[in-house]
Amino acid sequence: MAKFSIDLDKAFSALADPTRRAIVSRLCEGPKSVSELSEPFDLALPSLLKHVRVLEESGLVSSEKIGRIRTCKVDAHALQETEAWINRHVSIWEKRLDRLEAHIHRMKRKN
Fold first, then answer.
1. For the chain, what percent of residues have pLDDT higher than 70?
2. How far apart are CA 40 and CA 22, in angstroms?
3. How many angstroms separate the CA atoms of 84 and 82, rounded?
4. Is 15:82 a contact under the CB 8 Å cutoff?
5. CATH class of 2-110
6. Straight-line distance from the first to the last Cα atom of the chain, in angstroms, rounded to the nearest whole number
7. CA nearest 60: which of 16, 110, 104, 92?
8. Three-state SS for 59?
């Protein structure tokens, strides 16, 4: 459980940055070279590579270098684990809000 929490912490920390979220969104479309990833961003290549490195350290993204081309891809399993954590908590809060709503309706009927 502790390892899962550490990985989850790294994933959420990496996703806290809007540039990294945009990179992950682009990679959800499919693998891209670093030069393809850099196209919509107004960033120098070294800055973009720092973002990619953070995403790699979080486990959300992996890359492979063949010759001079580094290709990045999203790790679907890591995204699914992050999504599962969020969904568990959304479910808990939805149940709490449903109970609150039911309680409010009962209180209104009493008045």
1. 95
2. 10
3. 5
4. yes
5. mainly alpha
6. 48
7. 16
8. coil
What are the CB-based long-range contacts (under 8 Å, 24+) for 85-91? 85/8
Give the type of residue at 55. L
**Which residue reads 């959420």 in tokens?**
12
DSSP per residue, 34-53: HHHHHTTS---HHHHHHHHH
**Hey, what amino acid is at 36?**
E
Check pLDDT > 50 for residue 2. Answer: no
Enter the tokens of residue 105: 């309706």
Beta bridge partners of 50: none
Give the pLDDT confidence of 29-41 residue by residue, as tens digits: 999 999 999 988 8
Each residue's pLDDT tens digit, 59-97: 999 999 999 999 999 998 888 888 888 888 888 888 888
pLDDT band for 102, please (50, 70, 90 cuts): confident
Element (H, E) at 102: helix 76-110
